[in-house]
TrEMBL record:
Alphabetical list of NCBIfam families matching this protein: accessory_GlmL, glmL_fam
Native species: Sediminicurvatus halobius
InterPro entries: MutL (IPR006230)
One protein family per Pfam: MutL
Species classification: Bacteria, Pseudomonadati, Pseudomonadota, Gammaproteobacteria, Chromatiales
Protein name: MutL protein
Amino acid sequence: MQAGHALLIDFGSTYTKLRAVDLEARRLAGSAQGPSTIATDITEGLQQALNALEARLGALPAFRHRLASSSAAGGLRMVTIGLVRDLTAEAARRAALGAGARVIGTFTHHLTRADIATITDWQPDVVLLAGGTDGGNREVILHNAAALGSAGLRCPVVLAGNRSAADEARERLGALEVRTAENVMPRHNELNIEPARAAIRQVFIDRIVEAKGIERARERLDAVLMPTPAAVLEAARLLADGAGTDRPGLGDVLVVDPGGATTDVHSVCAGLPAEGVIPRGLPEPRVKRTVEGDLGMRHNAATLVETVGIAAIAREAGVPEDTAEAICAGFAGAVERLPQTDAEHAVDAALARLAVGRAVARHAGTLETVYTAAGAATVQHGKNLSGVSTVIGTGGALAHARDAGSILAATAADPHDPTSLRPRAPRFLLDREYLLYACGLLASVAPETAYDLALASLEPLAGGEPP
């Protein structure tokens, strides 16, 4: 058992958040936050947060571990490229999302001059170049490597395509920094995204931390390990799988995070079809993250209203449409605003319910009845979440909600939509102290402590039992 304390930091776009953990007692010792000062000097916001933490603790302990994640400066912005949209391009996109990236664009087939101009204009942090199964199509990935190599890009490229074309593709990428990983799809319909995820993570540690201005805080940290969404995904994996033989884990887990700009969904489960159901499409990764850019609660509130409709929000909140419209406009114009009145709380909860419900419906697979020469058959598209036993909510929208249980209930299966493979009968837990990211970081040095801390911090909702 480790003694001492760990300091876990999230450099966010708005706040620098700190969690101090007592490693021996396996409990949260204190929390604090300061402003995000990534645009000037990131250490200023960190120092303000440390001052706040010191005021709460009386004195700062000598931290044994000082680990950080970051979603500041737009997060890890990535472009992914593959051969066919539903195959290697989708595999590349899943690898990027699983690494905690924000995928700003996906391209397929031959990159055109307009595509190259768009990518150059976007200035991504990393490009993931895939395409072709091993021994399959070489021509497209070589064309795209040459196009990227002469585009004047400054970002690193992770090359994870057709193995037989890798050496030549690397040469055609010219002076660009290239990290080579195993093919994201070595054979047709076979996913292999973990090596690409690891390569992206290493690029983040080696290059992106410096490029985002986080390097200035380096001497005050042991490491900036990963993007914050990847830390949350690591915590989900830890809770599902456990740590060591005496901590077997919770089993299948779903984590939802309705944020200001996006709603993220993380699942850790096999998601296989029920007996007699035929799988269709690309195999699903056991550890999966999806990001819904049109379902943000503040930065993208206007897009969320456009997606679900003001009538649905008003009906869900129990307020007139003009009231709902005015409140939503106020949220969109003040991204840090917390609800104050009863009507604002009702609209905020309605936005959260609609966001998480739609996000999980997109994350989950669906069933379809098809007719063949042998008769009717049921096929499954996507991931089967129906057996997921635990749904965990994290993020400010849920932590500050008056009834987080009713929001998380929107993630469960709907009897009026029997084709959706959402969780049938999960229990709901709330990460009220926003500790999941911290546990994901801590798992890299003290997995058993991280597991115990995560488990103890989750609050059961709707009369459920503690985990």
